[in-house]
What does this fold into?
Amino acid sequence: QLQLQQSGPGLVKPSETLSLTCSVSGGSVSDNNFLWGWIRQPPGKELDWIGSGTYSGTTYYNPSLKSRVTISVDMSRNQFSLKLTSVTAADTAIYYCARMKNWAAAVTWGQGTLVTVSS
Amino acid sequence: DIVVTQTPLSLSVTPGQPAAISCKSSQSLLHIDGNTYVYWYLQKAGQAPQVLIHELSNRFSGVPDRFSGSGSGTDFTLTISRVEAEDVGIYYCMQGKQIPATFGQGTKLEI
It folds into this structure.
């Protein structure tokens, strides 16, 4: 059964880069049937789709974040990652990694990581 | 962006009774490929969301058959035929027709 294990810092300073990694077990990031993505949820608010990508380098990003976000998939480590640059307090949220059945729809979720942007 | 609006925002249901959540989108979610890209998720307290319904009316693997999705165009409904105690949480509707994918505000179901 596929499991996603997230890792990364829970506190990031304003203007710095948020970096999270999602390690995949029980499956492969090179599986052509799926994409790999990130969704976030500000405290007490609804879900916010960040984007998704494939091992071959195809990516789909939320236009509101496109200039700041990078999703990459690493076959050699069977993991994928999120980088969000120039963060502000508005980026404070629980970040979830997910296996996606298409560019949009998460079907298996990681446990979530609360990332707080604060000095 | 496609705006997704859910009603009601909260719902209190007696176990064994049905429940319905409405989702409306600002544009049709029928894609040229024939699929309607509506998804339903349930987020239980302190947990990540879990997918219930994909592409309008398809139950995801392991989802009980008391959950069903229906609708067309811009109007959609998630129906729970007989609510159980384990169904409490926040239900989200999501559109996956057009980037960015967008979620509704959520509907909190209580027993």
